[in-house]
Amino acid sequence: MAIVDSKGRLFGKVSILDLGAALIILFVLFGIFVFPGASGSVAQVNIPTKPVEIEVVVRVAGQNTTSLFKPGDKTSIIIRNQPYGEITVKDAKELPDNVFVPQPDGKFQVISDPRPESKLSRNLLLTLQGNAQITKNGPVLGNNKIKIGSPIELEGFNYNFTNLNVRDIRIQG
Q1: Across 63-121, where does the E strand assignment appear?
Q2: Which pLDDT tens digit goes with each residue over 64-106?
């Protein structure tokens, strides 16, 4: 009696293809249960969380800048195109539009920008406050590293500011 017959069966009972498929399934199940790989939750344990302040300069193309950001208000923040959630506005300061005017003696005088088009937009220095995990690579909001220069967006009820960059980060406590 031959081990493999003309129909490709071992000992005339089991097909070689069926046996190969069963072995592959067994190896896959063995790999899943014996070597599961990285498991566990996404949440990281034993990483300290501290309050951080984030500074951003926003160019507002509007007249009424005082009603957009008030201390204590919440704004939605998107870090590197990944939504984080809401963060608190700690402070909002309007930055003056100044120009340097050279004087005959070689010095410069700083005056308010007299051009009419300068009144069409304002620069705001926003200080945002939230809690971040402090890792060896820096603060992390949600699952996003946040560093000076990181691209962010701010979104609220009547505004959406894109193409912003983090100006400064201060870890509190």
Answers
A1: 74-79, 82-95, 98-102, 108-112
A2: 777 788 899 999 999 988 888 899 999 989 888 888 999 999 9
DSSP-based three-state secondary structure for 73? coil
- How far, in Å, CA of 35 to CA of 94, rounded? 57
User: What are 31's strand-pairing partners?
Assistant: none
In the structure, what pLDDT confidence band is assigned to residue 63 with cuts at 50, 70 and 90?
A: low
User: Is 172 in contact with 139 (CB distance < 8 Å)?
Assistant: no
Cβ burial, residue 122 (10 Å; 0-12/13-18/19+):
buried
140 Cβ contact partners less than 8 Å away, ≥ 6 residues apart? 132, 133, 134, 146
Task: Determine the distance from the C-alpha atom of residue 65 to the mean position of all C-alpha atoms in its chain, rounded to a whole number.
Answer: 26
Distance (Å, whole) CA 50 – CA 66: 29
Say if residue 55's pLDDT is above 90: yes
146 burial (CB, 10 Å; 0-12 / 13-18 / 19+) is: buried
CA atoms within 13 A on the CB side of 63: 2
CB atoms within 10 A of CB 19: 12
